[in-house]
Every structure is written in structure tokens, then in C-alpha cells.
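Hi, here's the filled form for the chain we discussed.

Project: internal
Contact: R.S.
Residues: 448
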Amino acid sequence: MSNLKSQLNRNQQRTICSQLGGVKLKLLYKASVHGFTGAAFHQQCDNHSPIVSVGYNASGYVFGGYTRRPFCQSGLFVNDDQAFLFTFSGKKLLKYPVANAPNAVKMINTCGPYFGEALVLVHVNKPVVFSNPGNHYNFTAAEMHGNDLNLTECEVYQVEETTELERPWRAVTWESKKRTELMESIKTYKPTVSSVSQARILLIGPVGAGKSSFFNSINSVFRGHVTSQAISGSSTTSLTTQFRTYSLKAGREGKPLPIILCDTMGLEEGKGAGLDIDDISSILEGHLPNCYQFNPSAPLHSEVHGYRKSPGLRDKTHCVAYVIDACKISIMPAKLEEKLDAIRRKVNLKGIPQLVLLTKVDEACPLVKEDVTKIYASGYIKDMLQEASERLGVPLSCVVPVKNYSEELDLDLNCDILLLTAVIQMLRFADNYFDELSDRLNSVEVKD
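And the returned structure, exactly as it came back:
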């Protein structure tokens, strides 16, 4: 019985876990193995908590519920204001919070997981669902399970906190001396091509992922206090509506740093919304003028004011950084994933190096929220980076976690080190672009 195999696929497990924080799921009960009876369920699951229960039917629906309370056989209702029901719609999880917390779950000996007389999996010792929408939970039967009440499987999982890894899987020095070294490396960086004085890094990502916040955070590190030059915040649509190029300075009166961060309109899953993919090639090639006003319904054309018809190498993009919210990587909509894949292919054709910035890691994992230095000791964060690698089609070594400044008033040493490390990786990738360009030029000269 210890080798029970979960029917939930990897993405479904991560999607459920993303609703609960830095956790993992341990399979306790599988009806096809233990039996479709209340007795079998209670024998495997009583006194375990928190619990995620999942039902499957022949129509392909995957649905269930979550409760923090341990099941038993008392026959009583139990209060749980955190309980919720859910169903999957493709890769997306639809969530239905408890509407009447005192009646969130009920402890019945002849049934499996029993959610407030609204949803019962394994009802009266049979492989069926009892469904009564509006009774303590508000959902529609068609959306929840397609009105197919026959169960092909029922699984119950215990929710466990992810444990800290014995050893960090990436080595980081968390000292003020290291921050100083990183800042100095950035200040003294020089592109390997003499005609270029600043590496241009293009930031691309979904709405709300933290592109503008990343610039503000890097700017804050070099200014010595939290700043907010680029417009950022929470919104369902992009707060960035223009193409902006941001130069960084070493202090208020300092010299410009050898890096330019280019901010774009946020990506949205809908057609004709957010950054237009057709504008990407123009941005990569350096045609786009600063402060160009994006128009999602019409791609850039060469007659727009300020359009660079013959951009130089210094105007082109030297590295692309995809900015992705760690809390949403598991539930990324398919349409958005398709857009990112289309962009990645365009960038590949240009031979431009790409990396991924995984933001909001503190919100995704309680261990990291408590202590940012645990970032590479969190198995949950490592899994997230692995998933970002797979979804974005880049090696794991090209995925870098960061924590932007959003609510803080003062700088934090450990956050600074994560942010500066990300910038160092960008400059290294830009160097790869310049080196590849030089190799191609040298190859042509040798042939001539």
C-alpha cells in the first residue's frame, strides 16, 4: 500500500498546492485500492489533516474539496472557514469557498469526504457522488462534475509542509561584503563590443508579474533606499502602456550604469489584449522608440514617430528576461503559455540569450517568506524553478528567483543579493550575445 500511485498529474498537484502555500500532497486513500466504502476511507484518513479530497468520473472531470479539519465518525458538522471545493477547467482550477463555515464538513461513517451536504465523495458506501449546490457551498453541478455522479476513482491526500533541504542546491553568500562586490561588478562592467556602452535587457511577462517592480527594485538597491520610478502595482490589465527604456544610476548623482532595462506592456491571454507579439521583432531589432505607445489591436509600423529605420547594435536587445510570478506558474493559462512560446521562438531566431526571473518567491513559500536565505533550501521553490524551466523552454540554470520590493520602506541585504545576482546573470548572458556576434564577424572576415 505504500506504493500508491496518484491519478493527479504533476501540474494538477502543483495547481492545488499553489492555493495552499509551500506544501506537498501525500496520498492516504485510493478507493480503487482500499475500497469504495466509508469504513475504508475512515480507516486510512481519520485524524489526518489538512486534507485534500479528489473525485474523478468517466466524463473526465477532476473535482473535490479541502479542509483543515481531521475527519472522524462523530456524525457532527465541523467548523472550517478555510474549507473550499474545486474543479479543474483544463489546467485552471475553479475554487468555491465555503459559504457557511460552521457546516463546512460533516463526519459520517458510511461516506467518504463529506463537505457540508453540498458534495460527498463515496456516498453511502457506493462509488457515487452526492451533489447539492448551494447547500453551504455555491457551485453549479454542470461546472463541477458535468452532472456525472458516478466515480471512477476517489483519492484523499494529506497536506504536508515542504521540508527544508539538507543542503542548498545553489551556493549563495549572504553577507554585506558580497552585496558590495556584486554592485561593484555591475558598475565596472563593460560590454565586450567597443561600440556598445550599455547592455540592453528586455523584460517580458504577464500582467502583474513584476517587470516594472524589478526595475524599481534594482534602482532602489543602487539609490540606497526604496524608490518607485516606474509605474507598478496590482491590476488586471497592464499598467505599462508604453515601451520604456530605463537607465540606472550609481546613486542620486552617480554615473549611469552599463545596463538599460527595457519595460514592455504586460502579456495577456486574450487576443488583441496586452503586448502584441508582432511588435516583438521590432523591439528586439531596436526599431522601437522610447515612450512608444503600445496599441494591442495594431502592430508597430515603420511610419510611427521616432521609428528607427537603421538601428545600431547599441539599440538592439542583447538579452531577454521573462518575468514570471512564482505563485501563478502552475496555473498559467494555455493561451498565455502559447504566446510566451511564440515569443521564445522569435527570440531564438535572433540568437538572443534568454533567462527567467521568478518573482514573488516569498509569497509562494512560507519558508522563504520567513527567511529569504532559505530560497535554495526550499524543495518547493526548486520544483517551481524546474516547472518554469519546462514551461518556458530554458535550462534550469537560466531560471533565477528574485524578491522585488513592494511593501517595504527599507532595503534588505538578502533581497539585494538576490536582485543583484539576477543582474549579474543578465550581463553574463549579454556577453554571450556579444561573443557570439564577434565570432560570426571573425568567421566572415576569415572567409573573405
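Let me know if anything looks off before we file it.
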